């Protein structure tokens, strides 16, 4: 079993004082498992969204992140529209869909 060193002897400071000094070791298998767990958690909590333009065209997306990647519009702008904090992002109106997820578990 091969070990991967992650920031050996890492020192963390708060207000100029040393809090903890760590030496982390994890196997490649442990790292993959942790990445998969985080990925699954994000899938479970994402909400699907849709956008509308001035012509009435509607497009649906699995999540705000998915919409941001596909449209190149900032995630925070889309999120603010869905949460009714602003009206438009990237020239489109955004809202959460009634269904919790599209194509999820």
The gist of it:
With 105 residues, the protein is of the alpha+beta class. The protein has three helices and five strands.
Low-confidence stretches: 1-6
Inertia-based shape: elongated
Under CATH, the homologous superfamily of the largest domain reads Winged helix-like DNA-binding domain superfamily/Winged helix DNA-binding domain
Distance between the termini: 33 Å
Number of strands: 5
The number of helical segments is 3
Strand content: 25-35%
What Rg is obtained from the alpha carbons, in whole angstroms? 20 Å
Mean pLDDT equals 78
The biggest sheet amounts to: 3 strands, antiparallel
Give the % helix: 25-40%
Strand order of the largest sheet: 4-3-5
Query: What's the architecture of the largest domain in CATH terms?
Result: Orthogonal Bundle
CATH topology category name of the largest domain: Arc Repressor Mutant, subunit A
CATH class of the largest domain: Mainly Alpha
Helix/strand-derived category reads alpha+beta
Count of domains: 2
Write the layout of secondary structure elements.
Blueprint lengths: L2 E12 L2 E11 H18 L3 E4 L5 E4 L2 H8 L3 H8 L10 E4 L9
Antiparallel strand pairs: 1-2, 3-4, 3-5
């Amino acid at each position: 079993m091969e070990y991967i060193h992650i920031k050996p002897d890492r020192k963390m400071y708060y207000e100029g004082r040393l809090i903890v000094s760590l030496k982390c070791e994890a196997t490649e298998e442990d790292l993959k498992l942790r990445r998969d767990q985080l990925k699954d958690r994000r899938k479970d909590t994402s909400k699907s969204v849709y956008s509308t333009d001035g012509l009435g065209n509607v497009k649906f997306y699995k999540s705000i992140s998915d919409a941001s990647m596909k449209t190149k519009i900032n995630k925070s702008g889309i999120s603010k529209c869905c949460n009714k904090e602003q009206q438009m992002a990237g020239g489109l109106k955004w809202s959460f869909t009634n269904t919790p997820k599209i194509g999820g578990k």
